[in-house]
Amino acid sequence: MRHPLPTTLNSGLVGCGVCHLIVPAPASGLRACCPRCGATLRIRKPNSLHRTWALVIAALIFYIPANVLPITIVTSLGIKQADTIMSGVFYFLHDGSWYIAAVIFIASVFVPLMKLIILIYLLISVQNGSTTRLRDRTRLYRITEAVGRWSMVDIFVVTILVALVNLGALATLQAGPAAPFFALVVVITMFAAMSFDPRLIWDAKEQAND
Amino acid sequence: MSEHVVACHECDLLQRLPAVPPGGQARCGRCGYVLARHKADSIERTIALLVAGVFLFVILNAFPFLAFKREGFIQQSHLATGIVQLFRQGMSGVAVLVALTTIIAPGLQMAMFLYVLLPLRFDRQAPGMFRVFRYLNVIAPWGMVEVFMLGVLVSIVKLAKMATIVPGPAVWALVGLMFVLAAASAALDPHEVWDRWEASP
Q1: What is the ipTM, given to two decimal places?
Q2: Domains and CATH numbers, chain A
């Protein structure tokens, strides 16, 4: 057996999540606060796996209406035109603005889906007690946490279009029914990434060493 | 910066964090997470950037944002116009989210940071600074000024075919605010905040 590297968990310590002070871990079942900043001390994020699973599944469900329903509805001279996120991407592709098409596709379609797939992979690997590619998996988590916010781009675009394209009888633009679903997907996937505790990836290694 | 024992935020490894030399950074020995970077005059620089940010934030909210010009017709908008419009269309949830990420979170974040850092600069503690610091951690991911900037660029390209889009002073303030906020968060060394707090009476 190899001597395990010291972590807060195997040293009977806990690191404050806010001010990063290292203090002795409270007895199990007791609620303790950081002596320096007063934040609740948690050895690991509470119910991390259950919460993350619940949020990931909810986001997957909302991802469907977010992509199938129209995100904008333009009424021009009495004619209504509904656009989904993908029809917007195709519009820009045909238009020759492939870079805008790429930005919208990556931010709105690719990033949320990749994020969910990565989180599911991390959840399953932690639950199976996998001890391989710990560093790569931590890096995957870091990327997932960092890129999620960029999915908000499409919501911001809709907000700006709604403010500007309001020409009375000539043309008006309305946010479509996909907008709230899309906003939910972004918010829920952000919460899902926050509720996952990357230290669980490394805990499997400790247990394997014991 | 003095020496600390820290636990890696990502893999929980306990390690001694040495004084980081200028231009250097300290990474976790196991997972590679950046534990600390050298930051000179951390608190002073952060305060300076935040004060600039507050000015830009006021301009962003008070001045015209984008104008839409077509056949003699001008539609002008402010930052809040789209949010109000979304409310009118019954999309109150989306409107609240946009308001939160573009106005409320960035504004609160700057105000709260200044509330904690300004007194600390003069070796004083703001009342309740710990609670404020805790809330700051909660708010931080929801300020999305840089994402909003990308949204503005996409919108301008999208509308360029339909009409002439005239950027107002608020757009330039947004560009500035994006850089200032990124620089402020890069300049701040949280360890320095706790060191100063422990040194203050």
Answers
A1: 0.89
A2: 1-43 (no CATH), 45-209 (1.20.140)
